[in-house]
Amino acid sequence: MSLNTPLTGNALLGSAGLFALVTALWDQIKLYWSKVWGLIFVKVHLHSDNSGLAAINRLFINEFKRTSFDCKTFSIYTEYVRPRQKNQLIAVQVIDKAPSLWWRNKRPIIISEGGIDLTFIRGMYNAEELLIEALEKYNAERSDKDYKANDNFFIRKMYGNLGKTKYEDRRIKDDNASKIEGMGATNSMRSDKYTSTPLQWKREELGQPKKKTAISDMSLTPEILELVQETIRWRQSEDWFKERGVPWKRGLLFGGGVGTGKTAFTRALGQELNMPIFSFDLTTMSNSCFSEAWNTAKCYSPCIVLIEDIDAVFDGRKNVACNGLEKGLSFDCLINSIDGVENSDGIFIIITTNDLSKIDPAIGGIVNGNGMSTRPGRIDKTIIFKPLDSDGREKMARRILKDFDISLWGHLLKEKHEDSGAQFQERCCKLALKLFWEKK
Asked: What are the chain's domains?
């Protein structure tokens, strides 16, 4: 029998018609089901930067209880554990992309895509109220007037993607996409520890060591000690600045030779002010990378933005770190971010250099003997870190060699060396360890 008979053709037409009918019915079924589903459930989709997601996740971690039978996702990384005073591997449970069920006062809600999608039974929650609660609590914590009340100190390195291979660049992007915070961050989960649940340790036991005596332990000149008091007053004067229409920000340029304590002082200042430190690696940043990193830091203001050894990147206005194959950070982008039209309240920028002669006056330089900068508002003051004076040497020696009589180490104070602080510290440590093991 031929396949082209009228009977076969009618069968094919009938099958096609049946298929079209089923498809149309299925579309109608989906349409009605979506309407029924919408009457019962509310789905909220969030469009936010990473800090907004951190606020949402923080609310759920702190205020909701997670169902135990959900698939659990853990992140394992190296973190400083304060009770043990060292870095070690820890595990934290994180909010993953997979749907998870949470409860608040016996009211369920589903979180998916790491907090981007929220689904709940209509009437159980008010989406607007839930978001406002999350943002209000997040903003209140960031702007707490008692800046010692919360543990806000952490150090975070901010990288761009210049100089990376295609594989490394893709890995960075993929890694950051699954994290709560912004671009180019290393171990970003640890710097916002309230968006994860640690195993074994309490949240306050994790993070960079925070010494209450960080400033007082340092051998600082009277000029730098005065600077400490200025910065503490700045930290406590947010309302004063805003009432007078003056931007509440600060900029310092630290000059001085290698090992004079510029970076160590910045860290101690962050601990004293209880502010996070974002350390920018300009050699890896394009204009877009820098702008994104700057915006991320602003989300955590008040904070310190640290740019180390700027003379290794810019000689005047020329980017000397760019290898010629990739377009690096431009001087204009740097300046416009530091002192642009956008509000940068709460940003405390510290720039360090080993060679002040390479610093363009548009950033800052010394006008007179009191350290006032050539460009207040960008860099307000320039401080020169010098080798330790006799008082500084004695203070450092007494701290490191406190277990031994001065007769065993007093010669360190009499020796004539043009030591930097780091070099003299090494001399003290070397002798202290020698005496320690001889005593053992």
From this structure: 43-142 (no CATH), 211-385 (3.40.50.300), 390-439 (no CATH)
